[in-house]
């Protein structure tokens, strides 16, 4: 980075520092998971990465996947036909450890080897297993015996056995469809939920049950402080530049709706302070209009 005046007073604040357009995107801008170039316009989030919308394509046939179903394979997107074709090729090359036949859709991993289920007897009743065979403590059981010995986890919501996929949260097991807000029974957007007395809540109903949340720590406010239209815990109300705790005697201003103490504000370049004053004047004119 080169310390130069901002062109046309345009700058980007980030973690208490200010950047010109070029340096901000070079240091902090998202990169496309396909071309690895910076994304300056519309951005698509998928598979834990960012993409140019036009570059979100099948990794095999390059078919455009925006708005279509796809499958994650080794952190890369595949269209369903390509994923199915690759899976069929893989099955033909993998054979059962106890017979010369290839593995189909159902197989079990027994002592580190892939085996057709019918080659493994149930530890309890000795009958051959089906694809519903389950393992517990390195021993295999048929579905009925597995249920009888109480090996299946129980859903914390409906109290019934979880036979398929389960979801772990708050030290309990849940049917994926049953892990919802205790109050409104809606699924959690973006995996964000809040725990109170061992059960999950969405943010609005957590606030309704427990009170206001701190803007910084997202916990229920302790000795709350209200500033800039937000609630803070007393110890979380800090200068966004130097992280100093703000008290009643601390003089502060705001930059991008974040609290900044006067000493930090005074260290800003004259051009930035001039730009901030101009923004305050425009805001006051707008309020009077």
Automatic annotation (TrEMBL):
It comes from the Eukaryota. One of its GO terms (biological process) is cell-cell adhesion. GO terms for cellular component: cytoplasm. Pfam families: LIM. Keywords: LIM domain, Metal-binding, Zinc. InterPro entries: PINCH-1-4-like, Znf_LIM. Residues 30-89, 94-152, 153-212 form the LIM zinc-binding domain. GO terms for molecular function: metal ion binding. The keyword Transmembrane helix does not apply. It comes from Sphaeroforma arctica JP610. Transmembrane segments: none annotated. This is LIM zinc-binding domain-containing protein. SMART domains: LIM (SM00132).
């Amino acid at each position: 980075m080169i310390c130069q005046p901002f062109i046309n007073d345009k700058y980007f604040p980030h973690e208490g520092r200010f950047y010109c357009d070029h340096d901000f995107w070079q240091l902090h801008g998202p990169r496309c998971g396909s071309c690895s170039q910076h994304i300056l316009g519309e951005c698509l989030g998928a598979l834990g990465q960012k993409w140019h919308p036009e570059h979100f394509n099948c990794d095999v046939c390059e078919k455009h996947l925006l708005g279509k179903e796809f499958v994650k394979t080794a952190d890369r997107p595949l269209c369903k036909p390509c994923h199915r074709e690759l899976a069929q090729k893989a099955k033909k090359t993998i054979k059962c450890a106890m017979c010369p036949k290839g593995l189909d859709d159902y197989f079990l991993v027994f002592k580190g080897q892939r085996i057709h289920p019918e080659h493994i007897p149930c530890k309890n009743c000795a009958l051959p297993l089906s694809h519903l065979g389950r393992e517990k403590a390195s021993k295999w059981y048929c579905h009925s015996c597995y249920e009888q010995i109480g090996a299946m986890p129980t859903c914390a919501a409906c109290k019934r056995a979880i036979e398929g996929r389960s979801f772990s949260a708050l030290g309990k097991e849940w049917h994926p469809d049953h892990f919802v807000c205790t109050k409104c029974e809606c699924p959690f957007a973006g995996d964000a939920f809040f725990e109170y007395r061992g059960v999950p809540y969405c943010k609005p109903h957590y606030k309704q049950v427990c009170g206001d949340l701190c803007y910084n720590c997202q916990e229920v406010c302790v000795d709350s402080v209200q500033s800039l239209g937000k609630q803070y815990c007393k110890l979380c109300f800090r200068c966004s530049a130097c992280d100093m705790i703000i008290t009643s005697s601390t003089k502060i201003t705001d930059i991008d709706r974040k609290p900044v103490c006067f000493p930090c504000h005074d260290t800003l370049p004259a051009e930035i302070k001039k730009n901030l004053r101009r923004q305050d004047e425009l805001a006051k004119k707008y309020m009077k209009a």
